[in-house]
């Protein structure tokens, strides 16, 4: 897979009176039949770096295994 384009971020919000952060990674990559958009969000996670790692370690291999990307 040559081209994956994405952006990480952290969203702050209030949940049950507590300030929490959600890490996210959004983007797109070139698929077999055209571009594929994706979004990974980790609620109350330690940051956006973990959302990127989840994409790299779980989502991208699943896309490859199912034939959506090479």
Characteristic terms for this protein:
alpha+beta, 1 helix, 50% strand
Helices, strands, pairings?
Blueprint: E1 4-15, E2 18-31, E3 34-42, H1 48-65
Poorly predicted ranges (pLDDT <50, ≥5 residues)? none
Order of strands, main sheet, comes to 1-2-3
Q: Main beta sheet: strand number and arrangement?
A: 3 strands, antiparallel
- What share of the residues lie within helices? 25-40%
Report how far the terminal alpha carbons are from each other: 6 Å
How many strands in all? 3
The computed structural class is alpha+beta
Approximately what portion of the residues adopt beta-strand conformation?
Answer: over 45%
- Sum up the overall morphology in one term: elongated
Residue-averaged pLDDT: 91
Question: What order do the SSEs take from the amino end to the carboxyl end, as H and E?
Answer: EEEH
Q: For the CA atoms, what is the radius of gyration? A: 14 Å
Number of helices: 1
Could you please describe the fold and organization of this structure?
This protein is an alpha+beta fold and about 70 residues long. Helix content is about 25%, strand content about 50%. The protein contains 1 helix and 3 strands, in the order E-E-E-H. It has a 3-stranded antiparallel beta sheet with strand order 1-2-3, with helices on one face. The longest helix is centred in the last third of the chain and has 18 residues, at about 50-65. The radius of gyration is 14 Å and the shape is elongated. The termini are close together. The mean pLDDT is about 90.
